[in-house]
Amino acid sequence: MAPVKDEILHALAAVSGPDGTPLPATGKLSEIVANDGKVFFSISVDAAAVKEWESVRARAEAAIRALPGVTSVMVALTAERAGSAGRRVPERRPQMAAGAARPHGGGAPAPAGIPGVAAIIAVASGKGGVGKSTVAVNLALALRDLGLKVGILDADIYGPSMPKLLAIREKPRSAGGTRLHPIMRHGIAVMSIGFLVEEETPMIWRGPMVMSALTQMLREVKWGTLDVIVVDMPPGTGDAQLTMAQQVPLKGAVIVSTPQDLALIDARRGIAMFRRVNVPVLGIVENMSTFICPHCGTRSDIFGHGGARQEAQRLGVPFLGEVPLDIAIREKSDAGEPVVVAQPDGVHAQGFRAIAARVREGMAADSRPAPKIVVEA
Ligand SMILES: Nc1ncnc2c1ncn2[C@@H]1O[C@H](COP(=O)(O)OP(=O)(O)OP(=O)(O)O)[C@@H](O)[C@H]1O
Ligand SMILES: [Mg+2]
């Protein structure tokens, strides 16, 4: 039987904070998410006190792991400080501040890289539902086809997609201590919060919890030696995405847009966001481009066509390619076999490999030209 919240709180009462107060009485615990043996919560402390709380976090995690029925546990330590506008903003955990590699926005040092991982790229869009997750997973598989060792991190904490897109039902195995093994699927290493929390669980996360879960998935997962991790970002260009873009050591970003104006406005915001934090934009993918009727073969441009290519030109970023709107792409995704795996010799797989080749080129470019236009969202 999986433990209920009372049992969890009881176990946590045996863990004391740095001043000896039982953890539940410190007022630092978040809401506890306990679902079918999977437990997640965070401890929010002052930025200055992070070091002394790290061992408390570890003891709390151990105490919960020892409970019968617990299959996985994630305890995040989040540090907060008051923002300039009185808003609470997440603080980088101390071990992340080391090893600055390139200047980041706001004068903050760049987050440290992940040992063994050569590059991390984000797949993002301003708008929801334009096919980021679809593009991210097929791009990851296409990069694999080019001979790269690839990982995929599902950073959509609110609506994880990878368990479904890759038909992953199992849970990640522990790699000892607080670390987890990613799940291997089709030759790529996969991590998603969806492996730890049920798909149907409505997830209400506070900003720092989101960051903490994300950095844990990046840094406390044994990714091994990889050429690239593709990060499937949640939709939007708000504070959460901006912070993510800042806290994950990104080599570059791929922006997904449909061809129509509304999506392009959001794509522009996405580009502006990455530029603000000095993350190079590797280019734009036009998804749901031309529709080819499966019955009569007629082409129709449901959302228009070519808008993303023009926009890329206008903004001075590479255009990476088009992905047609094709029912096969959706069906294969829904069936847990992305089209690059399901139809490796098909036209879509070829298209994704062409996109992947351009992404690889962009990743290899050491210095990139200064942006022609700086757009403000
Ligand atoms: N090129 C395509 N052809 C047909 N269907 C597609 C295509 N791209 C995506 N879809 C479908 O559109 C839906 C949304 O795609 P997806 O989940 O990848 O978008 P998203 O941008 O990640 O969404 P969210 O913003 O919710 O994370 C899915 O059902 C997916 O299968
Ligand atoms: Mg998605």
Polypeptide structure, described:
With 377 residues, the protein is of the alpha/beta class. The chain is built from 11 helices and 13 strands. The longest helix has 18 residues, at 347-364. It is elongated, with a radius of gyration of 21 Å. The N and C termini lie far apart (50 Å). The model is unreliable at 81-107 and 366-377 (pLDDT under 50). Adenosine-5'-triphosphate (ATP) binds at residues 125, 128-134, 156, 159, 161, 235, 287-288, 323, 325-326, 329-330, 333.
Characteristic terms for this protein:
alpha/beta; binds adenosine-5'-triphosphate; binds magnesium ion; 20% strand; nine-stranded mixed β-sheet; 13 strands; 377 residues
Write the layout of secondary structure elements.
Layout: H1 5-13, E1 33-35, E2 38-46, H2 50-65, E3 72-82, E4 88-91, E5 120-124, H3 132-145, E6 150-154, H4 162-165, E7 183-185, E8 188-192, H5 207-219, E9 228-232, H6 239-247, E10 252-257, H7 261-276, E11 281-292, E12 299-300, H8 307-315, E13 319-325, H9 327-334, H10 339-342, H11 347-364
Parallel strand pairs: 2-3, 5-9, 5-10, 6-8, 6-9, 10-11, 11-13
Antiparallel strand pairs: 1-2, 3-4, 7-8, 11-12
Helix pairs in contact: 3-11, 5-6
The site of adenosine-5'-triphosphate has 20 residues, from helix 3, strand 11, strand 13 and helix 9.
